[in-house]
Amino acid sequence: MISDWLKRGSGQLLAVMPEPDVDRLAETIVAFANADGGTIVLGIDESGRSTGAVYPEEIEAMLQDALRQCRPLLEVECQQEEIAGGFVFYVRVPRSTELHSLADGRVLIRRKGENHPLSGEEIRHLAATKSTGDYEVQVVPGATRDDLDEEVIQEFLQRWQEKQRRPWTRSVDDLLVQIGALTEEGQPTVAGLLLFGQDPQAFLPKSGLVFVKFLGMEPRGERGEAGYGRREDVGGPLARIIQRSWTIIMEEMRTGAVVKGLERIEQTEYPPAAVREALVNAVAHRDYRLRGRPIEVRMFTDRMEIISPGGLPGYITLDNIVEEHFSRNPRIVGALYYWGYIEELGLGIDLMIEQMTAAGLPPPEFRAEPYLFSVTLYNRRERPPIAQWQRTMNERQMKALEYIGRYGRITNREYQAICPHVSPETLRLDLADLVEKGVLIKVGDKKGTYYILR
Predict the structure, then answer these.
(1) H/E stretch holding 75
(2) In terms of Cα–Cα distance, which of 51, 119, 125, 187 is closest to 317?
(3) How many CB atoms lie within 10 A of CB 256?
(4) Domain 2-117: assigned CATH number
(5) How far apart are CA 152 and CA 323, in angstroms?
(6) Could you tell me the fold of the domain covering 392-453?
(7) What gap in Å lies between CA 400 and CA 418, rounded to an integer?
(8) How confident is the model at residue 336 (pLDDT cuts 50, 70, 90)?
(9) Pair type for strands 209-214 and 228-234
(10) Predicted model pTM
């Protein structure tokens, strides 16, 4: 379990503290509570071994001192595990519907694995929208426990246990209560119905998705007639909406291949990872209080638009959308994370941009209005796609390939001449790496060794 924590490293939902101190602990608790919640792991080093420097009674006192710095008071859950050399402690901080600060007045939020203070304007925006997550746990009038789909619940339970690396030992309903899908009285919440309902749209109209493929670059034909070739209404619980919508989009995307240098690159009209992130973000972050329109996926001949009802949440703006993260629907986001649709919170926008530019396409275009947010992906290639092996090359290796392109081959001595300030061993490893990746072929032996393109 500890090795799994370390592989993930500190991120949006996790903070690893080998040598915790009260002030840093307080800052992290406040930052998690103001964002999506998270877990603080105390008492292990980078290799997963216990530091042996903290004991249960010390952690309890340290935690209480840290909580006294939080305004208003927060409740957290602390568990301990004995490992070789000592103890490891897990402090789980829930997301709060209140705005929290430290005793000195600072308001922090979790951002990409770090605790960041907010400016006055950001604090005002966050305070104004912090309670919108309460909508998720509102009871849905007329809905009962029988309106939830047992097959979907069991699928989620299995994914939850896989993600947590431990079995759920209590009743399934206890888990649904814990994640906000049921009330203590067993009534389905908005989040519960959206995630597990047999027919959520019967209770929450327009909570599904509409896919439309248009025949040109406009919604209408030349003479004003309907300009689409396919339309699909997708309903059901959110996991099924994502699965079915993804299948439809992949069916309609053009595919092909391009040969670039050494590599034949399978090429879809849009990078699948970018489309997937845009789709999942639309489902996870839309404002489900708005019942006038569903999520829309519009595919034109030159672009794809993913339109989500509801403006940007919290203090997020188009200017800070890449750096910041804030969930309008924390329970839905949390469930989709356990389901495996969200790998790491806060990285979806980055991944979209990275995948589009690596494919030689324009970066995504974002549009924010008070009641909608849209992502537009264009299929016009501005340059050839970047091969996978090129994305991981360092600058020295790029120089080596440029040299081979000019002279047909390169030796270790020639490589040292174009990189004079780098050790021979480092350069040898560079070339060995390119051989391992299948980019270069090593010819000859010892002093007669040289490298050519495969």
Answers:
(1) none
(2) 125
(3) 9
(4) 3.30.950.30
(5) 34
(6) Arc Repressor Mutant, subunit A (1.10.10)
(7) 8
(8) very high
(9) antiparallel
(10) 0.68
**Quick one: pLDDT at residue 391?**
60
- Residues 341-362 have pLDDT tens digits of 887 666 678 888 888 887 888 8
Residues for the chain: how many in total?
Answer: 454
Among left, alpha and beta (phi > 0; psi -120 to 50; other), residue 287 is beta
Listing DSSP states for 77-130 in one string gives EEEEEEETTEEEEEEEE---SS--EETTS--EEEETTEEEEPPHHHHHHHHHHG
The 3 state secondary structure assigned to 186-254 is: CCEEHHHHHHHECCHHHHCCCCCEEEEEECCCCCECCCCCECEEEEEEECCCHHHHHHHHHHHHHHHCC
For 402-433, b where at least 16 C-beta lie within 10 A, e where not — what string? ebbeeeeebbeebbeeebeeeeeeebeebbeb
CB 32 within 8 A of CB 70: no
Provide the pairing of β-strand 14-17 with 38-42.
Answer: parallel
What are the distances in angstroms from CA 62 to CA 37, 86, 93?
A: 20, 17, 15
CA distances, 254 to each of 33, 267, 375, 379 (Å):
44, 9, 19, 10
Looking up tokens 């996991």 gives 239
Strand partners, 188: 182
Domain coordinates in residue numbering, the chain: 2-117, 145-200, 209-378, 392-453
Those residues whose C-beta lies under 8 Å from the C-beta of residue 151, and which sit 6 or more positions away, are none
Interval 279-296: pLDDT, tens: 999 999 999 999 889 999
**Token pair of 37, please?**
């919640």
User: What are phi and psi for residue 407, nearest 5 degrees?
Assistant: -115, -5
What is the residue type of 421?
H
Mean pLDDT highest for which of 56-60, 82-86, 429-433? 429-433
- What angle, 0 to 180 degrees and rounded to 10, lies between the N-to-C axes of helices 150-164 and 238-252? 90
CATH code reported for the domain at 209-378: 3.30.565.60
**Which tokens hold the place of 410?**
């390169």
